[in-house]
């Protein structure tokens, strides 16, 4: 079943959030308006708002209250994607980063800043101080994750712990906070919003591990980029860490650099796959999913609970 | 009299703020810790915290409450300076921007993001929703100012209005918000904190215009960069706009480009000065100062009021 079908009953409210997102980034500046809107529209599934709305249904669901959390989180997510796209030296070195793209870089940075700032404006409508603390904390962790990702590039000796902490910061906490803030702004008890935080955290971990697996297993058409792109860019993910337990394979993986040829890369990808590391990483992802389901068990039965479980399963098992 | 001497009675509280600033940016990551600390320490006069503290003295002054506003504003200011320093194409074109500096660029961006996020954490300690609205608004305007500055570069046909709006966004509003938030967090009446907002706004406008004048009149040693650097980088400031009222001079100014030689630039700077535009810009700066003093008049007599007036005078009349 397609992901979107699972929460079609939220469509009216998601459309409202779409309008609020567009309203939030309105700017006189045409460059900024177009850049922000383009970014927002290429944003995709709105999975964070979906989590906010579903979690809010465990409390006093009022779309005009919870929408603020949904819009804030989606803007923060989009802003972080923009900053993620600001090219680093690897792109420069390829020689294709012209002065034009460099100028775009600076504009991209400020467009991201602008979206962060707009997120704060929407956030200021939320009155609960705890919500502000959670959001600020999430943003700090997100930045730490981004900086770690730069630092950890091509570090073939990094530990699994480093990897897990990085994906927690870069991905899982934002999903965890989406769940928690949805519940919190709908006035649930601490037990419920903390439980939903943990649920979101585990789902986020599983989501990112699956993403890192798909970078090896999905086709170039499905990914929109060649398989193994993460590794080529120096991002060491779980399948690689598992494969590198074999010293011979580690020596092979360490030959990866950004200018590696397509053929050489294909050999390395196949060697990684042959270790069974993809399957093992899949087991870790499933383990996180199980933990997510366990958190749901403590929640009262509802359509929302059922949907959260279905989304989690869909996210963890997706093929691309 | 030196600026710092004017508010030496705040020294104990400013030292506390210094410690809080350092504590706020603590990070496990050594790169991040060093980068943030370096930036903070090169930050200078802490004029925004000074405004926060002085404004707070019109209410129930409690350093342990108002410090949060002071730290938040200084962190936002520092973060915006970091992003300001992310090189644009002009720096690249000069050929000196190596891969190393490009990598630094990306780290600089995330260090700025990190400081913004830490600012939010401190801000979350402030309970007044109005304070959050003001801070969010200030950050949105700051971003708009940054983006306008990029867009308006080398636009010799921009209006004075464009210039005034840009310096309002880039400089004046942050000082205005510092004054307002100091008062607000100390629980003053709306009349007082709004009056202090206007005071800060006018001081900020005067401050920036003076800054733009000094770029022409101060020595290279005082500025730490050659005179006329703003214009060379395409930033059209008030002295230039006034000078360009003369069509002949406008034609000359339009020949400025980033690779212009030192000698050619000297000719243009002298031509601009010869129009009397520096003095006229100085009058505009003084006019803003007058407006600032007028706002102070409505406030009860106090040491704080006297100091604000002295700082304003000092800032508007400074020689470098």
TrEMBL record, chains A, B:
Keyword Kinase: no
Superkingdom of the source species: Bacteria
Record EC number: 2.5.1.30
Catalytic activity: 4 isopentenyl diphosphate + (2E,6E)-farnesyl diphosphate = all-trans-heptaprenyl diphosphate + 4 diphosphate
GO biological process: isoprenoid biosynthetic process
Subunit structure: Heterodimer of component I and II.
Name of this chain's protein: Heptaprenyl diphosphate synthase component 2
Upper classification of the organism: Bacteria, Bacillati, Bacillota, Bacilli, Bacillales
């Amino acid at each position: 079943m397609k992901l979107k079908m699972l929460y079609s009953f939220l469509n009216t409210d998601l459309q409202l959030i779409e309008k609020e997102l567009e309203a939030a980034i309105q700017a006189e500046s045409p460059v900024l308006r177009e850049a922000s809107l383009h970014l927002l529209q290429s944003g995709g599934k709105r999975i964070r708002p979906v989590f906010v709305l579903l979690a809010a249904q465990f409390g006093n669901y009022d779309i005009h209250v919870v929408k603020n959390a949904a819009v804030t989180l989606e803007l923060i997510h989009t802003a972080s994607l923009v900053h993620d796209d600001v090219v680093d030296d690897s792109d420069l070195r390829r020689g294709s980063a012209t002065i034009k793209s460099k100028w775009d870089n600076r504009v991209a940075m400020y467009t991201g800043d602008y979206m962060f700032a707009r997120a704060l404006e929407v956030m200021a409508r939320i009155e609960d101080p705890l919500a502000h603390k959670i959001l600020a904390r999430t943003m700090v962790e997100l930045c730490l994750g981004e900086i770690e990702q730069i630092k950890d590039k091509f570090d073939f000796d990094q530990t699994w712990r480093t990897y897990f902490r990085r994906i927690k910061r870069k991905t899982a906490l934002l999903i965890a906070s989406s769940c928690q803030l949805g519940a919190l702004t709908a006035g649930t008890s601490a037990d419920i919003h903390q439980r939903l935080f943990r649920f979101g955290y585990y789902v986020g971990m599983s989501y990112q591990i699956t993403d890192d697996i798909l970078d090896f297993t999905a086709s170039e058409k499905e990914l929109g980029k060649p398989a193994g792109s993460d590794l080529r860019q120096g991002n060491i993910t779980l399948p690689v860490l598992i494969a590198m337990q074999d010293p011979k394979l580690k020596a092979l993986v360490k030959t990866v650099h950004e200018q590696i040829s397509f053929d050489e890369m294909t050999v390395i990808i196949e060697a990684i796959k042959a270790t069974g590391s993809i399957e093992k990483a899949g087991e870790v992802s499933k383990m996180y999913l199980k933990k997510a389901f366990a958190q749901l068990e403590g929640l009262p039965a509802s359509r929302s609970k059922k949907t959260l479980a279905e989304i989690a399963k869909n996210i963890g098992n997706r093929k691309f």
